[in-house]
């Protein structure tokens, strides 16, 4: 079991929460919004998170840089240049892996804070090795249908 310290979520008493070590950021993060009936599914989602491939990390970093620079540009600030795409991760702090439930396949839905958008933070949604959504946190999960008008930096 990858999820540690499982307990009832005080904000959503019908669900559980726990913690998982996220090696990409070298820290424990919350795992939220899963139920006792779906602990195996939650653990499978956590497994995807802790085993992110270098290719997936690269795609997430590139999308995060696009989001960062779009926000900075919109605020009239100079865009940031990164010698190594992973440098953007120093400006990001993962907060929680949101499980929800799907009987389809495990997925990653991550809430993060970031230096360039302190109010809305950032959201990563990954489904079947595809980065589906990277932008401000809107509660858009990996199984949601995306509107073409959504500000989504997952695609170059």
From TrEMBL:
It comes from the Bacteria. Residues 17-139 form the DUF6985 domain. Pfam families: DUF6985. This is DUF6985 domain-containing protein. It comes from Siphonobacter curvatus. The lineage of its organism: Bacteria, Pseudomonadati, Bacteroidota, Cytophagia, Cytophagales.
């Amino acid at each position: 079991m990858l999820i540690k310290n499982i307990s009832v979520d005080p904000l959503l008493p019908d669900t559980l929460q726990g913690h998982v070590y996220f090696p990409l950021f070298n820290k424990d993060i919350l795992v939220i919004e899963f139920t006792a009936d779906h602990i195996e599914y939650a653990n499978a989602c956590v497994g995807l998170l802790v085993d992110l491939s270098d290719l997936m990390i690269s795609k997430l970093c590139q999308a995060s840089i696009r989001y960062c620079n779009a926000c900075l540009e919109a605020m009239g600030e100079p865009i940031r240049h990164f010698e190594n795409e992973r440098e953007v991760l120093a400006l990001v702090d993962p907060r929680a892996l949101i499980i929800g439930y799907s009987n389809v396949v495990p997925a990653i839905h991550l809430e993060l804070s970031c230096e360039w958008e302190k109010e809305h933070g950032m959201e990563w949604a990954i489904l079947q090795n595809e980065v589906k959504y990277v932008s401000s946190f809107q509660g858009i999960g990996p199984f949601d249908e995306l509107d073409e008008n959504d500000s989504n930096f997952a695609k170059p």
